Known about the structure:
CATH superfamily of chain A: MetI-like
Order of helices and strands of chain A: HHHHHHHHHHHHH
Number of strands of chain A: 0
Largest sheet of chain A: none
Structural class of chain A: mainly alpha
CATH topology of the largest domain in chain B: MetI-like fold
Mean pLDDT of chain A: 88
CATH topology of chain A: MetI-like fold
Largest sheet of chain B: none
Low-confidence stretches of chain B: none
Number of helices of chain B: 14
Shape of chain B: globular
Order of helices and strands of chain B: HHHHHHHHHHHHHH
Oligomer: heterodimer
Helix content of chain B: over 70%
CATH architecture of the largest domain in chain B: Orthogonal Bundle
Shape of chain A: flat
Number of helices of chain A: 13
Strand content of chain A: under 5%
Distance between the termini of chain A: 41 Å
Low-confidence stretches of chain A: none
Number of strands of chain B: 0
CATH architecture of chain A: Orthogonal Bundle
Distance between the termini of chain B: 41 Å
Strand content of chain B: under 5%
Structural class of chain B: mainly alpha
Radius of gyration of chain A: 24 Å
CATH superfamily of the largest domain in chain B: MetI-like
Amino acid sequence: MFKWLEKNLPKIVMAPAVGLIGWFVYGFVLWTLYISFTNSKILPKYELWGVGQYVKLWGSRKWLIAVDNLLIFTALFLIFCVVIGIILAIFLDQKIRAEGVLRTIYLYPMALSFIVTGTAWKWILNPTLGIQKMFIDWGFENFTFDWLVNREMAIYTIVIAGVWQSAGFVMALFLAGLRSVEDEIVKAAKIDGANLFTVYWKILLPMMRPVFFTSFVILVHISIKSYDLIVALTQGGPGISTTMPALYMTQTAFHKSQVGLSAASAMMMFMAVAAVIIPYLYSELRRENAR
Amino acid sequence: MFLRWFLYFVLILFALYFIFPLYVMIVTSLKTMEEIRQGTLLTWPSGLNFDSWAVAWGGRGYGAGDTFLKPYFWNSIKMVVPAVFFSTFIGAMTGYVLTKWRFKGDQWVFLFLLFGCFIPFQAILLPMARTLGVLGISNSVIGLVLVHTVYGIPFTTLFFRNYYVSVPTELVKAARIDGAGFFKIFFKILLPISAPIIVVTVIWQFTQIWNDFLFGSTFSFGEAAPIQVALNNMVLSSTSVKEYNVDMASAIIAGVPTLIVYVLAGKYFIRGLTSGAVKG
C-alpha cells in the first residue's frame, strides 16, 4: 500500500489539476456544444433539436452585425497595433535615453482593466464635455467629434481604445525579438554598406516572422474575446451598432434567456479561436521539439 | 543629428498619447463639476480637491442608492488572495511533476492543460453558472475564487513548467539516490530557486483576477460583486447629473492596485505578459 502510494505520488499530486481542467474546461465545452443542438430557452432541455439554433443565429440581424463589427475591429486593431508596436520598438532600439521610462509609459495600459480604461475613454470621447469641447474652446468652432454616439462611427471608438491599450504590448514583443538578434549580423550588413533603413527592412524585420505570428495570434484572440471594453464604452450601442460576438453571447444567455441560441454563438466563437490557436500551438510545439 | 531629433520627437509624441487618458483621469478627479463644465479636458484643477475620491470610496452617506467602492474593493481582495494562492500552488505542483517526475504521455497531459489557456470563456459560462447554482455558491466570493482558481491553472502550470524545464534534472536525480522523497525534493531543491517564477505567476494571476469583468459580472451581482463590476455599475447608474469627477476617481481607485504592482515589478509583469498573454 505504502509502496503504491509512493510510486504514484506524482500522479496523485497532478490529479486535481487534470481533473479540474477536464471537468471545467473540456466537460463544460462539450456541455455547451450539446446544448447548442437543443431547443433550450430559459432552462436547458436535453432532447436534441438539430442545427436549428445555428440557422437562427446566422439569420439574426444582430449576430450578423456582431460578426461584421468583429471583422472591422480585428482588421483595424491588428494593423494599428502592429504598425505602432513596430515603430516604437525600432525607435526604442536606437540606444535611446530614458528608454526604461518610455517603455513603462507605453506598456502601463496593459496593467489596467478594460473597465477602468473604458471609463476614461468614455469621458474623453463624450461629445458634450470631452475632446470635442476641448477643440471648440481652442478656437476650432466647427469641430465635431461625436463618434461615440454615432451609429456609423461608434465601432471606431472601440478601435481607438483597444489600440491604445494593446499597442505597447506588441512593442514589448518586437523589442524582445530585436534584442535577441546577434549584433554581428547588423554590423556585417553595415560594413557591406547597408543603411539603417535597409538593415531593418531587409534583414531584421524578415527575421521577426515568429514575432509577427505570435502578435497576430494574440491580437486576434483578444479581439474575438472583446467584451469588457464594449460594455464600458458603448454597451453595444447606439442601438445595437457596436455589438460583438462576446456581448451577443452574454446578452442572449442572461438577458434574453435564449440558452440554446447563446450556446450556438459561444460555439462559433470557440471555433474561431480554435482556427487560430491550433495551427499556432502546432507550430510552437514543433519549434520546441526541434530545439 | 536630425534623425535623432526625429526619433525623440516621435517617441515623446507617442508617450504623450499613452499618458493622455491617465492625465485626464487624474485631473478630472480633482476638479469640481463646475470646473469641469468651464474648463477643458486638459485644464489644470484649481487645487488638490479630494472630495470626489472620498465620495467614490465611501459614498455620500444617504443610505439607499448610495453606491461606493469600499465594500467591493474588499470583495476583490477577498477573492484575489485565495484564488492567487491556490492557482499558484496547484500550478507549481503540476509543473514540478511534468518536468521532474516525467511519465509516459506527460507531453499530452501538458497539452491537455495548455489548451485551457485559449478557450473563449463564453463556451463555459452557461454550465459554470449552473454548477455554481447547484453548489450553492453563485453570487458569492467563494464561487468567484473557485472560478478564478480553475481557469488560472493552465497559466500557472505553463509558467512553472517552462521554468522547471531549465532546472538541471541531475540535481533531482542525485537527491533521489540520496533517498529524498517527492515533497522533500520540491521543498528543499526546487522551491528555494523558484522565487522569480513565483513572482511572475503571482503578479500575472493578481492582475488577471483583479481586472476580470466577465466572470465577476456573470456570476455575481449586488453585494458580492468585485470592484470592476461595481465600478461599471457606478458609472452606468443613470442619476440626473453625471458626475465625471467621481467616475474618474472611482476608475483610478479600481486601477491603482494593479498599477502599483506594474510600477514596482514591471520586469516580472512583462515576463508574465510575454509568456502568458494568449489569454486576452
